[in-house]
Amino acid sequence: MIGERIQMLRKKKNLSLTELSEKASVAKSYLSSIERGIQMNPSIQFLEKVGAVLGITVEEFLQSDNANANSKNPLDNEWADLVKEAMNSGVSKEQFREFLEFSRWKNQQRDS
């Protein structure tokens, strides 16, 4: 999980929760909820800020999280590039979710 990875990297750099939140300019309470797994889908902006302090890219966060979730199907370079392109073009997670829902609906209509 991304939260576990953040916590591990934070401790490896000997940073307290407060220090990381201040250096990354993120809310300490939100950072804590991510680390504890209460919040599980941090924004790209959050990952960029925290990653800059911890020395890890958003892509590395996503790859490590995907590898832990399903080691049989790691995030390949093409998917990573597509995610990066979507992030850079301003696509939000909610917009992406809506697209996936529409795609599922469209496939169901076709299969019916």
From TrEMBL:
Q: Which SMART domains match?
A: HTH_XRE
Q: Is Isomerase tagged as a keyword?
A: no
In its UniProt entry, the species of origin is given as Cohnella soli
Q: Does the keyword RNA-binding apply?
A: no
Give the protein's recorded name. Helix-turn-helix domain-containing protein
The Sin domain covers: 66-104
Against InterPro entries, the record matches this protein to: Cro/C1-type_HTH, Lambda_DNA-bd_dom_sf, SinR/SinI_dimer_dom, SinR/SinI_dimer_dom_sf, TransReg_Diox_bact_type
* Superkingdom, natural source: Bacteria
